[in-house]
Amino acid sequence: MPGQQLVSQVWRSLKVACIAIFAITVSSVTAHGECTISQPLHSGYQSVTPPLWVGQSFVACMSGKLTAVRVSSGQEATATLGVTEGSGSSFPVNTQVVTLGIGDVTLTLTEPLSVTAGGTYSFALLGANVSLGKQVENVYADGNMLVTNWSSTHPALNTDLSFELQIEPDTSPTTPSPWTGIKLLYAEAHQ
To answer: Which is nearest to 66 in space by CA: 30, 109, 31, 33?
Structure first.
């Protein structure tokens, strides 16, 4: 029986190691003023044909601009990438035509979407036959894969696309309110 105990002990160690690796791969990382949401796992593909579409909801990990979306594509296609606030019930809002190759494809947004930390947003690929990598487990807890049927949009519970999102700080210049100067003068006069 010592051999069986050794096999059992090795098996338990492998399961612990796999769980640790799994926990590390799904992440939201903020570094150098930018934030990346990553769910790289996939166990199959979700294919759709027009007018249906497939996407993913997510929660922004910082306030700024969504600048890029990475997906795992199972076929070449020219599609429309749509991004929107909310859980994806209304597309398109911010759209652009994109070309998908086979494998991991990074799609840089020509018009980055402003996002607020903690807010729910969605992206989707529309208007083409697409096949995107998905993981049939709830590996990204802050969102779900979204799919349409002929009458409505619904989240695919416990399923996520294989995706990565890049959110960068908003570096747009801001125009100060003319009231700022008036408030300062008033505050100084009443000290």
So the answer is: 109
The beta-strand segments (E) located in the chain are 27-31, 34-39, 44-48, 54-59, 64-73, 77-85, 94-100, 103-115, 120-126, 130-135, 145-148, 153-156, 160-161, 163-168
Domains of the chain: 25-172 (2.60.120)
Specify the pTM.
Answer: 0.73
- DSSP H helical ranges for the chain: 2-25, 178-189
Residue 178, pLDDT score: 53
SS3 60: coil
Closest CA to 109 of 69, 57, 162, 70: 69
Closest CA to 53 of 165, 145, 160: 145
pLDDT of 13: 44
Report how far apart the first and last C-alpha atoms of the chain are (Å, whole number): 85
Q: Which residues of the chain have pLDDT under 70?
A: 1-32, 88-93, 149-154, 172-191
d(CA 163, CA 130): 15
CA dist 150 → 48, 77, 78, 122 (Å)? 12, 22, 22, 19
